[in-house]
Amino acid sequence: DQQVKQNSPSLSVQEGRISILNCDYTNSMFDYFLWYKKYPAEGPTFLISISSIKDKNEDGRFTVFLNKSAKHLSLHIVPSQPGDSAVYFCAASAGGNQGGKLIFGQGTELSVKP
Amino acid sequence: DAGVTQSPTHLIKTRGQQVTLRCSPKSGHDTVSWYQQALGQGPQFIFQYYEEEERQRGNFPDRFSGHQFPNYSSELNVNALLLGDSALYLCASSDDLGDTQYFGPGTRLTVL
Is the pLDDT at A10 greater than 70, yes or no? Predict the structure, then answer.
């Protein structure tokens, strides 16, 4: 079963506008969420994370929002830049004896057009 | 500050062979996790090593095994390779108290 889902395989945005990438999860035991960015032929690069005790975390142009009741998180990139074009993965982990195991979504390919 | 490194970058094997992939964690990290990423999919957790022991394991057969050395580096071994083992193999490291994992560039394994 797919515990973490990214339902949009791709997203196209104009440079300077906002990019919103979405992620849904089903496991209520998840307590830590991360976003990674991946360029072709490279490993995933950590972008930003959020603990389940928060509903928002901001780092520069990147903001992650967490809605626990809806089991939904989103990544906002403002303003979007052509260099942001990549595949974005959300990931989740549960604490306790499941700590450390990251469950990934299938990714959303973001294309930022000049 | 060196990040996570993996070797080799690419590898081509034939069915039935065995392969060993290597990973050195980020400086200061003591926990290593391995993931398999098939084309068009997100990474899937294989296992995690801490203090030279396998601490957690995902849904992968026993053909997949690993090892962690006293210097925290790690190896992933896959026996009796199948065509379906062709994938990008990613190593990630973290410190035991941290939830954030940092990934290496991966090893692209092709099984013919």
Answer: yes
Mean per-residue pLDDT, A30-50: 94
- Average pLDDT of the residues in A96-113: 87
Binding-face residues of A in 65-94 toward B, CB within 8 A: 89, 91, 93
Q: Which amino acid is at B3?
A: G
* pLDDT in the model for residue B99: 77
What CA–CA distance (Å, rounded) separates B34 from B7?
13
Residues A56 and A53: their CA atoms lie apart, in Å, by 9
Minimal Cβ distance to B56: which of A44, A91, A100: A100
Query: Which of B60, B55, B101 lies closest to B77 in space, CA to CA?
Result: B60
Query: Which of A64, A101, A104 is the best mutation test for B, with the most CBs of B within 10 A?
Result: A101
- Residue B101: band (very low, low, confident or very high) from pLDDT cuts 50, 70, 90: very high
Query: Cα distance from A81 to chain B (closest Cα, Å)?
Result: 23
